[in-house]
Amino acid sequence: MDAPVFISTNRKVDAFPEAKKPHIEAVFDRQPPIVVPDDPYASWEYACYLALNTDMNRRTNAGDRIALDVQVRALEWFTENAHRLAVVGPRALHRAADTMAMGLDKWAEDFALGILLAKKAKRLNRQPDQHDWKRLILETATAKPSLRQAA
User: Fold this and answer.
1) Which distant-in-sequence residues (6+ apart) come within 8 Å of 141 by Cβ?
2) Is the full-model pTM beyond 0.90?
């Protein structure tokens, strides 16, 4: 059987009960885990990775296609505001893209995106850099046939 496994936990692997450790190790022997530490920069990086390598930002919550320019704008906004987000992660990035895809007036979009921001800025161990997001999205879509149509 070949099926994807997704495990999300706030525990460290070595903090599982002794009786569960052999099972956890067996799963991780088959598929090494992607560990996202409690670090806003790492969470930003992981969210961008998902946006580039999956369909995460290519469809709205309603299933409508998100235009390439909106995907780019969402990544730019997410990067620029990473230190101000209440929660830095894939959900915030997708919500930004979903909001931008609605075609709202500027003031309404700014208000909707403002809900994602914290009252106080976070201290990041490193400021995320802007990239040529359009080029990266297109390169990823070209490299992955399943994403080619979505971009």
Assistant:
1) 147, 148, 150, 151
2) no
